[in-house]
């Protein structure tokens, strides 16, 4: 059995999940190769499946990435499948999940053509593109900085990007963010991520902002919200899913649902690599 682990030319050395994944694959008798999605010399058809891992540079060229996903899925199995990737690479899915009763962080959307001056009046808030990753182009503002926030939104809208505005959930500063990892719908492990948006600091220019990660045992309330999120998805059970939650006065709320190319933080979950690979092996048959 041959499995391709899809990374990006610019991300090979940054993906801490690749080494434990390869090791677990080898133990399970799966031949795994890490290859870059943006390397045009790769023949994907020779793999039994292609697993999206660290294709983190697609945000600036989403149509190209989605076209690659479709082409790849036409010649082998792509996990997660292209329909899932198309839906999940634009945070407007948060609006859809909120309408289904999932506790999502209050989210306001602006579309190209909208007046950025109509962004909601919030005490402290975040402006970010709906297509983004690694905190790039995300920035935190207070009410007094509304003019700068409007300019930020205008820049994104002028680039034909949709914009997401959310209240800044301050509890993240002490409690951090919780990411729950699921393989084949089964909970595997969770991590705590420290707060990423410093006040007054411009957006990161790196492929992703530096993160402070620890393993974490989720609360019952976090498990409950994550289960609700997964149950609301318009897809069959997926090989992998990561549910990112932030604490709020009203309980945990969905920040982001990662079904495309999430770090799965294998070094922080004892046995996690084996669980992930076992789930993939069942699908490979
Ligand atoms: N509404 C918010 N309240 C508090 N922190 C936020 C909020 N939105 C984003 N952040 C911070 O910015 C980071 C990146 O935002 P996120 O929505 O996860 O986008 P990305 O796709 O770039 O990971 C989060 O991990 C969190 O630290
Ligand atoms: Mg995130």
Q: Keyphrases for this structure?
A:
285 residues, alpha+beta, Rossmann fold, D-amino Acid Aminotransferase, Chain A, domain 1, Dna Ligase, domain 1, 3 domains, 5-stranded antiparallel beta sheet, 4-stranded parallel beta sheet, 24% strand, binds adenosine-5'-diphosphate, binds magnesium ion
Concise synopsis of the structure shown:
The chain has eight helices and 13 strands.
Notes on the structure:
The chain has 285 residues and is α+β, with helices and mostly antiparallel strands. The protein has three domains: 2-80, Rossmann fold; 93-103 and 170-264, 2-Layer Sandwich (D-amino Acid Aminotransferase, Chain A, domain 1); 108-167, Dna Ligase, domain 1, CATH 3.30.1490. The protein has eight helices and 13 strands. The chain has helices at 18-27, 62-75, 82-88, 93-99, 146-158, 172-175, 220-231, 272-284, and strands at residues 2-7, 31-36, 49-52, 77-79, 108-110, 124-129, 139-142, 163-167, 177-183, 186-193, 213-215, 240-246, 253-258. Strand 1, helix 1 and strand 2 (31-36) form a beta-alpha-beta unit. The longest helix has 14 residues, at 62-75. The radius of gyration is 19 Å and the shape is globular. The model has no long low-confidence stretch (mean pLDDT 95). Bound molecules: adenosine-5'-diphosphate and magnesium ion.
Q: Largest beta sheet, briefly?
A: 5 strands, antiparallel
Total strand count, please? Answer: 13
Instruction: Please report which band the strand proportion falls in: under 5%, 5-15%, 15-25%, 25-35%, 35-45% or over 45%.
Output: 15-25%
Highest-level CATH class of the largest domain: Alpha Beta
Main β-sheet, spatial strand arrangement: 11-10-9-12-13
Tertiary shape:
globular
Q: Could you tell me the radius of gyration in angstroms? A: 19 Å
The CATH superfamily of the largest domain is known as ATP-grasp fold, B domain
What ligands can be seen in this structure?
adenosine-5'-diphosphate, magnesium ion
Proportion in helices: 25-40%
Q: What do the pLDDT scores average to?
A: 95
């Amino acid at each position: 059995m041959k499995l391709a682990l899809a990374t990006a030319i610019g991300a090979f050395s940054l993906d801490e999940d690749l080494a434990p994944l390869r090791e677990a694959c080898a133990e399970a008798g799966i031949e795994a190769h890490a290859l870059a999605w943006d390397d045009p010399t790769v023949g994907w058809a020779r793999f039994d499946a292609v697993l999206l891992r660290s294709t983190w540079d697609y945000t600036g060229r989403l149509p190209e990435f989605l076209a690659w996903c479709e082409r790849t899925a036409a010649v082998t199995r792509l996990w997660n499948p292209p329909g899932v990737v198309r839906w999940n690479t634009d945070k407007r899915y948060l609006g859809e999940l909120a309408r289904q009763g999932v506790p999502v962080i209050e989210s306001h959307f602006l579309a190209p053509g909208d007046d950025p001056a109509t962004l909601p009046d919030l005490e402290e808030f975040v402006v970010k593109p709906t297509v983004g990753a690694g905190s790039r182009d995300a920035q935190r503002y207070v009410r007094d900085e509304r003019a700068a926030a409007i300019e930020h939104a205008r820049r994104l809208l002028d680039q034909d990007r949709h914009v997401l505005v959310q209240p800044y959930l301050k509890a993240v500063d002490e409690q951090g963010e919780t990411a729950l990892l699921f393989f084949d719908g089964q909970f595997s492990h969770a991590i705590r991520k420290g707060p990423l948006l410093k006040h007054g600091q411009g957006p990161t220019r790196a492929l992703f902002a530096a993160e402070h990660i620890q393993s974490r045992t989720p609360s019952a309330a976090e498990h409950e919200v994550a289960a609700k999120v997964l149950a609301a998805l318009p897809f069959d059970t997926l090989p992998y899913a990561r549910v990112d939650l932030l604490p709020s006065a009203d309980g945990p709320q969905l920040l982001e649902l990662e079904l495309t190319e999430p770090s799965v933080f294998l070094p922080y979950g004892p046995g996690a690599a084996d669980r992930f690979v076992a789930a993939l092996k069942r699908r490979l048959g």
